[in-house]
Structure formats: structure tokens, C-alpha cells
């Protein structure tokens, strides 16, 4: 029964070791993607702040970690290569003709050198206050990246060495003439290494997450179109003058035959984005002369609308225009052969367009001319002025969810914080449980996992050293790189570790493996 249980335990330990190695490999890859320096083909660069130009954000001796980005915009803190003084970390304030203008947050002047995009090393990812002082003596940002990467890769190397040591010990046992049942299992060490590496990875993820805001403002553009339609008509004292018996859009209105004109205007707003709009309008007529004089007449009452369209109308009394002209000419002795009459809807729109706050106006106008006898449409293209259309673009900062990008994986900052904290806590809690269980593992159970041999040659008493516990025997095996061998006797178990001509021995009463496993 003892042999079967030990074989099954050894297979399970081997499977756990393979999983541990795979997880460690993934963590090592993640460490490389996150922290590999650009000098080694990675995306990160490490800059020790030397000066006070970025205070109060960063101070002398801070370690700044920057990463390459696809695009750099005003407001980004970046590091660039200055041809004379080396690497400089400042904030972009403008971009023109492919070159950036930068300035330190604590400076009142702009940098004299304007780097190109190819001279920008990367955008600030995060910084560690005071960490640069610890690395100052290395004088090379390359070593900073190497230290962070080795923190990940070292765990993988430690596990690999453990596997290699166990392989060597199994080989030693097989060449010693015994019948190997499996080495003392170290799978808990592999699991502990995986948990520690996972905790480090999750802490880094949380650190990056808390180093960024939950939201970011990015410039966004929205296109939209505003359309209008003017129309007018005037009753005529003699209907024979017009085909329809009255003056309509595009036709002149004769003052001796008509005393007023009815104007109408319809409005429509369209965009390829959801729009929630409200607005106001007022149809007016502006009477003016060539010198720039202007007098405004409201046509109808002002109104408000909700949505993307409205219609309004108003009446213009021609006698009001004639009286105003007579007043102007009587007071100024100015005589004009012709005056302008412009019909305007005065549209103002506000609300939300495509998730962005929006405000706009529609500057439509129907130009007309007035002389002593008639009012007519003053345009070589009547269809265009009767149906005005305006396509526009507006830009506004858009509040978006900030993300953390880990190579090809991207997650919201809030998710990175939660996953980082919970993941680190779970890994550390699991590591504590592993250590607690190992501390409570009976020495008899560890003894059952040793290598059993059919017999052991007799030795001189002076060459045998008895140890106090199985733990002491394991430490001797670890120190000399040996393997623990077990001899099963009728009334006891005897474990040995050979070191040249000296054998270290631990002996204890027989342990019932079947009973222990069932328990």
C-alpha cells in the first residue's frame, strides 16, 4: 500500500511542477513585456530625474519609467534626446510642423530645442519617488530595467534549478543500486514561487493602475450639418401681375401692389451621432444701406425648440421699411437709390452631440434689395440662398475611461486596480496557507516520501552519524546535494544520507502509511 500511495503522490507532484514552470514562464514573459528596456529591444526606458524643472510633480532623484507610444499630444510628459545635454523629461505644450515645443512644469520658459517624433524616447508611464537615488551609482538606466526584469526572471531560474537538482538526485539514487520510489517532494516550493511571482505581478498591475486616473480627456471631433429653407409670398392688389395671383419665392414684390410680405423658415439639424438638442430662434429683417447702417425689425415672436428641427414664420410690413427710410433721409439728407433687406432666423443650438457638450449657431441669410418701387431677391443663385446648408466640425475634450495596456491586453484602470489588489491578496494568502500547511506536515509523512532501498551495506559505527530528526537529515541532504534513502525494517524506518564514507542516519518506529493516508 505504501508503494502505491508514494507513486501516485510522485505523479501529482510532477504535474504540479509542470504547471508551476508554465505559470512562471508566463510571468517572466509578462515581466519582459512590462519592464524590458529599449536597449534590449523592449518598450520601456528608465530616467533618473536630475533637476527641479518638473516640480512639484517630480523631484531630483525620482526614477521615471517611460514607454514608447503610437502618438504624442500636448499635455503628455515625455523624455526626448537633446543633442547636447542628453535625455530631458518635460511636458509637451505644442506641436507644429512635426516638431514639439516642451517646457518643464516649474519653468517659465520653453525649451530651446524642438525635438521630432523620432527623438522622443517615450511617454511617462509612472515614476517612483526617490528610487533614482538608490540607482544613481549605477549611472546607467539600462541597469534599472535589468533589476526589474531579474526580479521576475530570478524566480523562474530558482524553480528551474530546483527541478535540475531533483533530477540529479534521482539519477544518483538509480546509480547507487537502490530501487527508487521518488525523491522527497519539493512541489510546495514551486507553488510558493509561483504565488510570490504572481503577487509581484499583481502588485505591479495595481501600482500602474493607481498611478493613472480613472478617466482621461482626449480631443474628439464631431461633424454635423445644418439646413434651412426660406420661402415668402405677398398678396397683390392686382392678381393679373403674377401666375398664381400673388408674389411667391423668387419673384419681386411691388410696393404699389403689396403692403406686406409673409416669410417662412424651416430648420433641420443632422449628424451621424446621437443628438440631444434644444435651441432658440427669432426671425428678423435687417434694413441697411451701403454705408453699413442697419435697423432690425422682428418678424413674429421669438421661440424655442427641442430636438433637431423647427419651423417659424413672420410678417414684414413694407410700410415700416418705407417710414424708416424716410426718417433716415429726412434727418441726414442722405439719399440712397437702393437699400438692403436681409432676412435672418438667428438660430442658436445647444445640448449634447455624440456624448460631447455642444453649442452652435446657424448663420443663414436671405439677401433682398429694396428701392422706391419693389422688393426683390438679390442673388444670382436663388435656389442656393432659399435653401442654405452649412457643414461644420467642432472639437471638444471627451472624457473617456482610462486604460492600462499590457502588451496585447488592455483593461480599464479601475479593473487593473481591483484585479491587482485582489490578485496580490489572493496570492499572498495562498502562500501563507502553503507555508502553514508545510509547517504542520508530519515528519512521518515526509519520511514516507523518501527513497526506499532493499538493503544497506553494513558500516563501521565510527562512520555513522545519527541525527535528531528527519528535518535535520533533509538539511544535510540539501547541503551536500545528496538524496535521502529509506530502509523499511520490520519494526522501524531508517533513513540515510551518504556523504563519501560517512553516513548520516535517522531511525524511528514503523509508521502505518495506509492509516495516515486514510485519515
The poorly predicted ranges are 1-17, 137-187, 446-456, 511-519
Please give the number of β-strands.
28
Q: How would a textbook summarize the main sheet?
A: 6 strands, antiparallel
Q: Could you say which overall geometry the principal axes of the C-alpha atoms support?
A: elongated
Describe this structure in words.
It is a single chain. This protein is 32% helix and 35% strand. Mean pLDDT is 77; it is low at 1-17, 137-187, 446-456 and 511-519. The protein has 4 domains: 1-29 and 141-214 and 402-440, no CATH class; 36-139, Umud Fragment, subunit A, CATH 2.10.109; 219-400, no CATH class; 447-518, no CATH class. Strand 12 (284-288) and strand 13 (294-298) form a beta hairpin. It is α+β, with helices and mostly antiparallel strands and 519 residues long. The strands form 6 sheets. The chain has a 6-stranded antiparallel sheet. Strands 9-20-19-16-12-13 form a 6-stranded antiparallel sheet. The protein has helices at 2-35, 131-135, 141-175, 187-210, 318-332, 382-386, 413-439, 443-448, 470-480, 513-518; strands spanning 44-48, 63-67, 77-82, 86-96, 99-103, 120-128, 215-235, 246-248, 253-254, 260-270, 275-281, 284-288, 294-298, 303-306, 309-317, 339-344, 347-353, 356-362, 366-370, 374-377, 389-401, 403-406, 409-412, 451-453, 464-466, 485-488, 492-499, 502-509. Helix 1 (2-35) packs antiparallel against helix 3 and helix 4 (187-210) packs antiparallel against helix 7 (413-439).
Amino acid at each position: 500500500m505504501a508503494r502505491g500511495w508514494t507513486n501516485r503522490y510522485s505523479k501529482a507532484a510532477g504535474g504540479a511542477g509542470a504547471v508551476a514552470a508554465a505559470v512562471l514562464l508566463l510571468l517572466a514573459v509578462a515581466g519582459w513585456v512590462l519592464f524590458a528596456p529599449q536597449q534590449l529591444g523592449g518598450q520601456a526606458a528608465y530616467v533618473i530625474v536630475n533637476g527641479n524643472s518638473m516640480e512639484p510633480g517630480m523631484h531630483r532623484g525620482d526614477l521615471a519609467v517611460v514607454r514608447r507610444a503610437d502618438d504624442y499630444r500636448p499635455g503628455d510628459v515625455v523624455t526626448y534626446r537633446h543633442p547636447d545635454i542628453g535625455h530631458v523629461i518635460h511636458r509637451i505644450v505644442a506641436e507644429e510642423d512635426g516638431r514639439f515645443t516642451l517646457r518643464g512644469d516649474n519653468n517659465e520658459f520653453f525649451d530651446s530645442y524642438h525635438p521630432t517624433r523620432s527623438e522622443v524616447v517615450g511617454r511617462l508611464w509612472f515614476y517612483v519617488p526617490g528610487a533614482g537615488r538608490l540607482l544613481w551609482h549605477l549611472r546607467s538606466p539600462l541597469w534599472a530595467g535589468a533589476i526589474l526584469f531579474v526580479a521576475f526572471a530570478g524566480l523562474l531560474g530558482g524553480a528551474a534549478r530546483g527541478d535540475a537538482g531533483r533530477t540529479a538526485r534521482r539519477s544518483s539514487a538509480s546509480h547507487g543500486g537502490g530501487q527508487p520510489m521518488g525523491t522527497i517532494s519539493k512541489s510546495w516550493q514551486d507553488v510558493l514561487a509561483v504565488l510570490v511571482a504572481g503577487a509581484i505581478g499583481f502588485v505591479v498591475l495595481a501600482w500602474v493602475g493607481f498611478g493613472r486616473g480613472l478617466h482621461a480627456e482626449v480631443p474628439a471631433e464631431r461633424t454635423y450639418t445644418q439646413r434651412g429653407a426660406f420661402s415668402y409670398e405677398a398678396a397683390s392688389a392686382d392678381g393679373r401681375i403674377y401666375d398664381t395671383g400673388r408674389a411667391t419665392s423668387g419673384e419681386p414684390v411691388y410696393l404699389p401692389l403689396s403692403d406686406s410680405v409673409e416669410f417662412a423658415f424651416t430648420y433641420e439639424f443632422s449628424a451621424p451621432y446621437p443628438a440631444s438638442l434644444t435651441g432658440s430662434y427669432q426671425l428678423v429683417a435687417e434694413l441697411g444701406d451701403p454705408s453699413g447702417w442697419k435697423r432690425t425689425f422682428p418678424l413674429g415672436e421669438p421661440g424655442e425648440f427641442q430636438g433637431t428641427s423647427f419651423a417659424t414664420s413672420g410678417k414684414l410690413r413694407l410700410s415700416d421699411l418705407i417710414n424708416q427710410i424716410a426718417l433716415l433721409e429726412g434727418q441726414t439728407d442722405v439719399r440712397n437709390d437702393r437699400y438692403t433687406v436681409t432676412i435672418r432666423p438667428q438660430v442658436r443650438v445647444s445640448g449634447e452631440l455624440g456624448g460631447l457638450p455642444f453649442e452652435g449657431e446657424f448663420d443663414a441669410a436671405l439677401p433682398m434689395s429694396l428701392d422706391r418701387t419693389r422688393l426683390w431677391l438679390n442673388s444670382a443663385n436663388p435656389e442656393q440662398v432659399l435653401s442654405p446648408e452649412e457643414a461644420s466640425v467642432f472639437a471638444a475634450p471627451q472624457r473617456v475611461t482610462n486604460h492600462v495596456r499590457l502588451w496585447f491586453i488592455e483593461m480599464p484602470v479601475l479593473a487593473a486596480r481591483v484585479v491587482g489588489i485582489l490578485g496580490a491578496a489572493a496570492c499572498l494568502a495562498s502562500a501563507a496557507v502553503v507555508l502553514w500547511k508545510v509547517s504542520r506536515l508530519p515528519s512521518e509523512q515526509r519520511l514516507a516520501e523518501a527513497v526506499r532501498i532493499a538493503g544497506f551495506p553494513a558500516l563501521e559505527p565510527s562512520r555513522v552519524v545519527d541525527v535528531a530528526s528527519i528535518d535535520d537529515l533533509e538539511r544535510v541532504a540539501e547541503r551536500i546535494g545528496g538524496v535521502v534513502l529509506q530502509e523499511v525494517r520490520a519494526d522501524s524506518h531508517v533513513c540515510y544520507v551518504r556523504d563519501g564514507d560517512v553516513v548520516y542516519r535517522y531511525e524511528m518506529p514503523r509508521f502505518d502509511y495506509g492509516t495516515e493516508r486514510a485519515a
